[in-house]
From TrEMBL:
GO CC terms in record: extrinsic component of membrane; photosystem II oxygen evolving complex
TM ranges: none
Pfam families listed in its UniProt record: PsbP (PF01789)
Gene3D superfamilies in the record: Mog1/PsbP, alpha/beta/alpha sandwich
Organism of provenance: Citrus clementina (Clementine)
One Gene Ontology molecular-function label: calcium ion binding
Annotated PsbP C-terminal domain residues: 130-287
GO biological process: photosynthesis
Protein name (database record): PsbP C-terminal domain-containing protein
Amino acid sequence: MTIRTDKSREVLEVSRFCSSEMAASLTTPLSPKFSVSNGRKPSNKIQRALTAFHQKGNECTRTPILRREILKGLAVIPATLIINKEPPYSEAREVEVGSYLPPSPTDPSFVFFKASPKDTPALRAGNVQPYQFVLPPSWKQMRVANILSGNYCQPKCAEPWVEVKFEDEKQGKVQVVASPLIRLTNKPNASIEEIGSPEKVIASLGPFVTGNSYDPDELIETSVEKVGDQMYYNYLLETPFALTGTHNLAKATAKGSTVVLFVASANDKQWAGSQKVLKTMLDSFQV
C-alpha cells in the first residue's frame, strides 16, 4: 500500500499543474505572475506553493530543487499505474505439462497435447491446421521468441517458423516447425507426396531439424506412413554437428498452405535412455 503525506500530495498536485503549464508554454509565454494559459485556476494549496516558488523566479521551469520535489511526488505513484505490461503472445507455461494437460487416452503414462489458437500466432491466423501429440508429464513447454514464432509475419510468412517446443533436461526436446508450402512447391494445397520424395523434402527442411546445416549423409532411415487421409514422411538422422542434438527424429506432412515438421532431438547422454520415449512422441504426432 502506498501512503502519501500531505507534503507529497501537495508536491504531486504542483507537479501536475506545472506539467500542464509547461506544455502550454510551448505556444504561450508565461507571464511574470505565472499566467494560466489553459483557463484553469490552481487550487488554494497549489497557489500557495506556487507563490512560495515564485519568489525565486518561475520555479516550474528553472529550479532544480522543485524538479527533485516533483520526482519525489511522482515516486509515490504505484508502479502498476505507469507500467504497461505487454500480454503474453502464447499460452506457453514453463512448468511440468502433467500439471495441466490431460492423460493420453491410449497411454496414461503420457499426457495429451492438442494445439489450439491460443497457443501460436499461426493457429490464430488460420495458417496452420491444429496438430497433436503425446509427451511425458515431466516435460515443460518452453516459450518461443517472437522472432522465431512468425508473430510478425502471419499470415504470409515467407520462411519457416517454430510453432511450439517442449523440453526435458534428461530426455531431450521436441518442437513443431511450420513452413510455407510455396517454399517447397508452386502447387496449391499439395500433399507431401506431390511435393516430392522423402529425400527431397528433408533436403529442404533438414536445416530446421538440425538448427544449422544438413548433410544427406546424416540421413540414416526414412519411412512413409498414412494415417486416415494424411500422408507422413518419417526420418531418423545422426547429426554430430547439429545444434539441436546429435540424434534427431523427424516427421513431416503437408496440409493446406503449410508443411508441418515435428522434430525430436537428444544428445548422446539423453538418447541412451530416451530413444523409446522420443519415438513414441514422434509416432503420436498428427495434423
